[in-house]
Every structure is written in C-alpha cells, then in structure tokens.
Amino acid sequence: MVAALGAAVVILFFVNVLLGSYTVTIPDFFRLLGGADIPGASFIVMENKLPRAVTGTLIGVAFGLAGTIFQTMLRNPLASPDIIGISYGASASAVAAMVVFGLTGVAVSAAAMIGALAIALLIYLVSHRSGVSGGASARLILIGIGFAAIMQAVVGYLMTRTDIRTAQGALVWLNGSLNSSNWDRVAVLAASLVLLLPAVAMLSRSLRGLELGDDAAAGLGVRVGPARLGLVVTAVLLAAVATAAAGPVAFVAFLAGPIARRLLGGAGSLVAAAGVGAVIVLAADFAAANLIPMFLTNGTALPVGVVTGALGAPFLLWLLVTTNRVGRGG
C-alpha cells in the first residue's frame, strides 16, 4: 500500500505539471529539464507549474507528518495542528504582518512561522500547568481549541480594520493557496524537510511507545517527557514551515493520518501519512485549478484550501458524531 501511495504521488505530480490549462508532452518536459528553451512552455512549466507541484508535494508531506505525530502521540484524531490552534496562530500572525505592518512575501511567511511556534509554546506550557485537571493529552487539546478560538477572533478583528485590497490578499492566504509558489519557497521547504525528516525518523520509536500510553512507553524505556517535547517541537516545525509556504491549507494534517490508517487496516505509518498528505494536496490543487472553475460563472480558480476544507469538514462532523456515540456507549 505504501508503494501504491508513492505511485499515486508521482502520477498526480506529473498530472499537475503536464496537464491543465496548458499541456506539455513528456518528451518536451524532459527537454525543459535538460535546459531546452521552448517558447511559452519554458516559463509556464519551469517557473509556474513545476514549483507549484513541488511545493504541493512538500507541504502535503509536512502536514501529513505533523498531523499524524500529534494524533498518535495524544491518541486522539482531533489532535491535529489545524484543530488545536497552531495553524490559527500562524494565520493570526501572518494577517497581522499584512494588515498592521504592510509586509508581503517572505516576511509574511516568516511571521506565520513565528506565530505558529509562539502559539504552540503557549499551548504546551499552559496545558502542563499543575493547576489544570485531567490528563496532559486532554488538556493540550482543549486548551489548543481555546487558543484557536482566540486566534480566529484576532483574525476577524484585523480583517475588519483594513482596506479591501489588503483584506482580499489576506483572505487568499487564509484559505491556503499554491498560487505564489516559486523556487525560493521550494528551497526553504526542502531545506527544512532535510533537517526535520531525520528527526522524525529518530523519534518514531518513541512515538510508537507513546501511542500505547505513558506508563507502557516508560516500561519500554522511553523517556516520556523529553520524547513528548521533541515530538511536539518537530511536529510544530513541520506544520509551521508548510503553513508559511502556502497558508493554512485546511484539514490536510487532520485527514492524512486517519486515511492512512484505514488504507493499512488500522496500522499507523508515518510514511503512509506523508504520502496521503501529498496525494490530498496535489489532487485538490489540480481540481481547484482545472476542474472546479468550469462550473463557476467567472472561471476563477479556487485556492487549494477551499477544496481540502470541503473534504475535511464532513469527515470532522462524522468523527464528532461517532465519538459522541462511543462516549455514550452506543
């Protein structure tokens, strides 16, 4: 199944690059990679479609890993960065950078990353205060949801205090979009993943232990406190770099882990979750850019986050309903 997911990622990658509003043949694509200059195609493929597909693949991997780490570590499918406030922290910081300071481009991405890290730190510190009752996992999730509500209110306030042009640009970013993808962002994403993926691999054993519970993990020799902190930091950084590159693409982190588990018959796999995340983003972006606009009167392409949000919202409602039934013993 992991091999099938890898094949799906490769196929969707080439579908995004070769097909769509401007098509290019496979031989021409490899000629372009070899440095050939084909009028029209050189810019469209090499400066638009290719970096967009690479960015979509990388953020899908990052979101998929981040969500699965949180969900596995906290043993709760609701514990993903876009549910517990981390993505909202990035959003509030990015919108503040645009609205208050008039920043654009890389500066907005940097602000989003700082916001995600700051909110994650606050959630972690507040959830581990001794005055809060209940388990650490439940505290972190509930406090994260509370911070998410606060950050949503901040974003709403900022959007009402700016001019319509700035608000329009902020709204596109808030919905998650690959339209501004370029090779500079690809380089930052790739460098970040080169550093973070080995950390994920090293912490994967601790993650498997924590999935069994703190006591069982400690019995297996896992240092629970340092392992949990390392996993939180790594997952937050993955979510932060992905959000900084394309905005808070909705529900990718939330969906990737559960879908991967279903495909593997209930077994968890970080590699499968990364593949599912990439598949979701690539498929949603192709649909947003090429299929859905045919049914719109103005032909405007939707941000990829609108499509992933439409996929994730029903799943979230289903999860909440079934969780509620289980809680009642039904």
What does this structure look like?
By secondary structure, the chain is mainly α. The protein is built from 13 helices and no strands. The radius of gyration is 20 Å and the shape is globular.
- Fourth CATH level, the homologous superfamily: ABC transporter involved in vitamin B12 uptake, BtuC
User: What's the CATH topology label?
Assistant: ABC transporter involved in vitamin B12 uptake, BtuC
Instruction: Note the run of SSEs as H and E.
Output: HHHHHHHHHHHHH
What is the approximate shape? globular
How would you characterize the largest beta sheet? none
Q: Which CATH class? A: Mainly Alpha
Low-confidence stretches: 130-134, 326-330
Question: Would you report the number of β strands?
Answer: 0
Gap from first CA to last CA:
32 Å
Number of helices: 13
What do the pLDDT scores average to? Answer: 84
Strand content: under 5%
CATH architecture: Orthogonal Bundle
Helix content: over 70%
Q: What distinguishing features does this structure have?
A:
mainly alpha, ABC transporter involved in vitamin B12 uptake, BtuC, disordered C terminus
Write the layout of secondary structure elements.
Blueprint (H helix, E strand, L loop, with lengths): L1 H17 L7 H8 L7 H34 L11 H14 L6 H22 L8 H25 L3 H12 L7 H28 L3 H6 L4 H23 L5 H12 L6 H22 L12 H24 L3
Could you write a compact summary of the structure shown?
The protein is mostly helical and 330 residues long. The chain is 75% helix and 0% strand. The longest helix has 34 residues, at 41-74.
